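Sanity check record (used in CI):
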Amino acid sequence: MSKARCTHCKRELTSNSKCGTSHLKHHLERCPHKMHQDIKQYMLSAETNADGSTVLNKVKYDDSESRRAIMFYLIEEMGPFITVQKRGFRRMTRRLNSQFKPFSRQTAMRELFAMFVKERDNLKEFIAKAHGKVCLTTDNWKCKYNREEYICVTAHFVDSNWCLQKRIIRFRSLVPPYDSTVFLMS
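Expected output for BED-type domain-containing protein:
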């Protein structure tokens, strides 16, 4: 007698051609491990129409969008990568959505670097499309918390819609002594 193994729960089932395959189909329909894989998690979101009525919408959960939002949070708050491994952060994300899969600080660094490379390439293309000249300015500043000094290089240009644009193209800490070679190396 032939045996078939469920790829989800690893349970062995008979697979004799004389018995048919409906029992395999029934097992797949109620296999607890497959159910978790097939669920398309939808969250309800409410929208209020102009007439004041409320309409419920289904929103499919997207893990990559959640990760991207966390990356932007780390950037905007200048949070350390270890934040994603802290117990409180994981508890919060689990409560916000039980479908969220936690990830390590190494994964956060890797994804953030990939985002940086993509944004850098987009910025290069955006500046290359500028019809006029690109002006560069530098600014030095000192962090009031740790007294470290930084230099920031900003590109200013006019886009195709005649709107003045400015983008930071380089940001780096300065190490004493502050002479021309330090600025050239930055």
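The two ends are 73 Å apart (CA to CA). If this sentence no longer matches the regenerated tokens, the check is flagged for review.
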